[in-house]
Design goal:
By secondary structure, the chain is mainly α. The chain has helices at about 10-30, 35-55, 70-90, 90-95, 105-120, 125-145, 150-180, 185-195, 205-210, 215-230, 240-245, 250-275, 280-305, 310-325, 330-360, 375, 380-395, 400-410, 420-450, 465-480, 485-495, and strands at about 60, 65-70. Strands 1-2 form a two-stranded antiparallel sheet.
Length: about 500
């Protein structure tokens, strides 16, 4: 084997180096009282440096096509690395508590999970894709169970690992069916075989293909989609999400809701558009149904929540539906809209979880009632929370409005001749945007309007929380109006397609 091919995997190689540096630093600082602070600064600095190889890397391949990366994948790696940096910064306050002695392990698990996501997105073979997925999932289960002083954390980890194991089994079953139908696990080879042999262009042709030509291929695609649907929290594969988000430590919940979801959605989009491009008439109607269910169920269940992390769990389910809405366009614009949506979602969602973490750490809890009258004592925190919620709801002029607009445009693009369904799916998404605004305003109402005789007293956030909020707020305000960011993502998407 030619080991020089590892030089084609610069982002992964530099991240492995960062992981080794953190490991030895943790060993060297074993008895230091400032270990958490030093390791946090070191990990944050390494992640900022990691953005450079992700941003500068070009298209490359290694090991006979097992590893294949493209400009849009490198853009997503840059976005997820920035999101991981924000999570590391916001974790400092929490790690100063009982979890202080395990801060080294926490940072290594974070980096290991990010490495798995890198590998998953850059896979050109279903085997490497599955290895990357497990590299991301197993350390994530450890992170969910990291707060050993809370019973809910262990329960959440048990539910997460059980559902992750089941979804991995379903996915492997689907991949084995795909191999049996095509005789290969390489993305390019499988796409060529499917294109050569299966070309449905209407519902009648699709039905004929299902029942007379290759039911094994169809079942393999459905099982694969179902397995990855668990990772993204698409309905009806979402049941683990609320309990896991509620029980996990708040920084881990934020990490799970944005970074993990971003990697999985881009990977699913690439595989659908690349491997199953010839079968678009089959998977697109399936995706329409799943998207409508995901957005609607997530919004309706979010209205009923009084615990804020469960509330954000159902919000993230709904947001996953909006992200996947970009895929139904099956176009370059869809990839651009998906990636831009993830970028804006990282900023807005992590801002919300940073505020939740700050309130929880300073004598509050994660119940919505803890935010009653927050504006009276902590007006700046309440204002930043409001900006983040408005962005998630898609209120102009915040970045969330632009991300939703691009997703809707991508969903109907390329379907001008379609009489009904794409426009109906977008209409359902628009109606649900109004519903989401209602339940996001419930938190705003609690902070600004609901009277509370003893609101949470004023508290200082600390430098780490302030930096995290500053970065997220800048993203909420600037990503929508800085056209160069969208142009950068669009250029990468065009080069990739």
């Amino acid at each position: 084997m030619n080991y020089s091919q590892f030089l084609n995997m610069i982002p992964e190689a530099t991240l492995v180096l960062a992981l080794v540096i953190v490991f030895f630093a943790d060993f060297a600082l074993l008895k230091s009282e400032r270990k958490t602070f030093v390791l946090g600064m070191l990990t944050g600095a390494l992640l900022l440096c990691q953005i450079v190889p992700c941003f500068m890397a070009g298209p490359s391949s290694a090991f006979g096509g097992l590893y294949v990366t493209s400009p849009i994948v490198n853009v997503m790696k840059t976005i997820l690395t920035l999101g991981t940096f924000i999570v590391v910064v916001m974790s400092q306050k929490w790690l100063e508590g009982p979890a202080n002695k395990l801060s080294g392990e926490y940072y290594m698990l974070i980096l290991s999970t990010l490495l798995g996501m890198y590998v998953m997105m850059s896979s050109g073979h279903f085997l490497l894709f599955f290895l990357g997925l497990e590299m991301a999932s197993v350390p994530m289960a450890c992170l969910v169970a990291f707060d050993k002083y809370k019973r809910d954390s262990a329960e959440a980890a048990a539910k997460y690992i059980l559902t992750a194991t089941f979804s991995s089994g379903v996915m492997l079953y689907g991949i084995s069916m795909l191999y049996g139908a095509t005789g290969t696990l390489y993305f390019d080879d499988m796409a060529a075989i499917i294109t050569q042999n299966y070309r449905p262009n209407a519902w009648a042709a699709m039905i004929g293909m299902v029942f007379s030509q290759s039911p094994l291929l169809i079942m393999g695609m459905v099982f694969f989609f179902s397995g990855l649907g668990f990772k993204i929290s698409l309905v009806p594969f979402h049941f683990w999400t609320a309990d896991t988000y509620q029980g996990a430590p708040t920084p881990v919940t934020g990490y799970l809701s944005v970074v993990s979801k971003g990697a999985a959605t881009l990977t699913l989009a690439i595989i659908l558009m690349k491997v199953f491009a010839a079968m678009v008439d089959m998977w697109e109607p399936l995706l329409w149904i799943v998207i409508m269910l995901t957005i609607t169920v997530g919004n309706l269940f979010a209205i009923r929540q009084t615990e804020l992390k469960r509330f954000m769990a159902f919000s993230s389910i709904s947001q996953a539906g909006y992200i996947m809405l970009a895929v139904v366009g099956n176009s370059t614009m869809g990839l651009t809209a998906l990636t831009f949506y993830v970028l804006v979602y990282v900023a807005a969602n992590l801002a919300v979880f940073t505020v939740i973490s700050a309130v929880e750490h300073n004598g509050g809890n994660t119940q919505m009632s803890a935010y009653n009258g927050l504006y009276q004592t902590n007006p700046k925190l309440a204002l930043l929370m409001t900006l983040a919620l408005f962005s998630l709801a898609g209120i102009p002029p915040f970045a969330g409005m632009f991300s939703k607009f691009f997703v809707f445009m991508a969903a109907v693009g390329g379907h001008e001749s379609a009489p009904f369904w794409p426009y109906f799916v977008v209409l359902v998404a628009l109606v649900n945007t109004v519903i989401s605004l209602y339940y996001y305003l419930l938190i705003v109402k609690a902070m600004y309007i609901t009277k509370e005789d003893n609101p949470l007293p004023f508290f200082a956030n600390g430098r780490a929380i302030n930096w995290s909020l500053a970065i997220c707020t800048a993203g909420i305000l600037l990503f929508g109006i800085c056209s160069c960011i969208y142009a950068w993502i669009d250029k990468a998407a065009v080069a990739s397609m």
